Predict the structure of S-layer protein C-terminal domain-containing protein.
Amino acid sequence: MKLTKKICLAITALALVVTPFLVNCNQIQTVAAAKSSKKTAKGKITLIYGAHLYNKYGHKIKNKNKYLPYAQDDASGYKYIYSFNADVMKYYGTRKIKDQKFYNIGNGCYISTADIKEVNGKNSKKGKLVLLQKSAVYTKTGNKTGHTLPKRAIVKYQGKVKQVKSRPKYYYSKYFKSDNDEHFFYLPLTKIKRKNYYAIGKNRYVKAYNVASLDGYPLTYNGVTTATVLKKTATQTLNEMKTKHILKKGQKIKVDLAVTPWAEDFEGYIFRLHNHHDEYIDENCINLRNYLPTTDYSDLTYSFVTAKTTANVKLYDATGKPVGISFNTAKQSDFNVDGLFYIWNAATNKAELYYHLLSNNLDRKALINNDGTQLKAPATDKKYGPTILTTSEKIIAANSFVKASDVKFSWGIKLSPVNTSLAAEQKQKVATDSDKVKLQKDFDSGQQTINESVHYDALMQSYDYALANAAVVLRSSKATLAQVDQAIWLLKTTKTQIKTLNFPEFA
């Protein structure tokens, strides 16, 4: 994942069921201080995650007519402060409400201590967990003790938190300035009758599934959790296109991943439906039970490989022959790929694996001729100015490969071969006109689509170049069955990408 995207996730990983409208942290502090100017601040607090506001009776504040400049309304209309907009807030005293401490932040608003991580810079939740809901206390044999802890109870745990390299079942994460990377921490679990528990005393346990935070960090559940639909809505695809699948208000659904969708600015997560992995629902439409692992749109959309060495990486055509151009790895060593093919190499008499580069992913600044010289600049239209590519240049842009042996998988979707090594060998026969019927049909259909569309967009341009490649294969009297199959694949793939990709991402 890119560094900037990791940072974005780090900043926003604490938000769950919130609206996409953000408020300014400085505004929170300034306005709150102005409203409470007659009081002297007792100190500062920071939040674990987003927090609801309560009145002095411990009731959530729900008043559309009440203007609170440092809060927004959540999906149900209750006043809510978003953790990523309130890193540090002033408080003016505390109040005990229903046996729990609340912090007065002014304007008649209070925040529960269960939602607070730091008080005056000190982590008040170190060594403690906060319960998500009312939870029974169990013995090691799995029997209930008869004692039940209330919702949002703060409890000391037993055991020591450990760091781990990969995401365990339950964990929290931190980002360190030294490497700007995500680091995972977990508290060892106790297995009782196949369920996970945390120890909170001698022979006393609570279900891990009922824990909201640990050590002042949201506890992430690396599994499948439930969500309640808050309003009638249609699900959407990863690139935010509505589907025909309608969810009803009050419906319980299963979700398993929080995804940052493609957008210029982060506006909240979409959640993947566990039983419909191509469908997602916006966070504003659900009430989520547990925090889920987060990932990025790019991780679920693209596949990246990286050059194994600092040597320049050669480009090949659909027959495995060098096109005379290489990537200068000093300028670009990561490549966005969308297909993995076995291509028969007549010279070595064997099939080798090649990655197909995502069309239009060739950055001319990173390309050089195989002899090390610079590429010749493409022609331009004297009247209109846009670059004009020759047919061969279009084919290189749309249908280039790198040897799998020259690169290694980096991140994103791990690809499987489109064909087999045996098929690559068997399809070296020259294709007849009858073998090209499907390609001709797809070409004719695609040509009509291009003629009826405005195709200056990069994805439409890739499809245009795929058509140019198909035209060459159709005209060639030497094109093999393998080339025909690959040309059909390229047309289908680039056409699909027009609808499924928001943009052709570069490394």
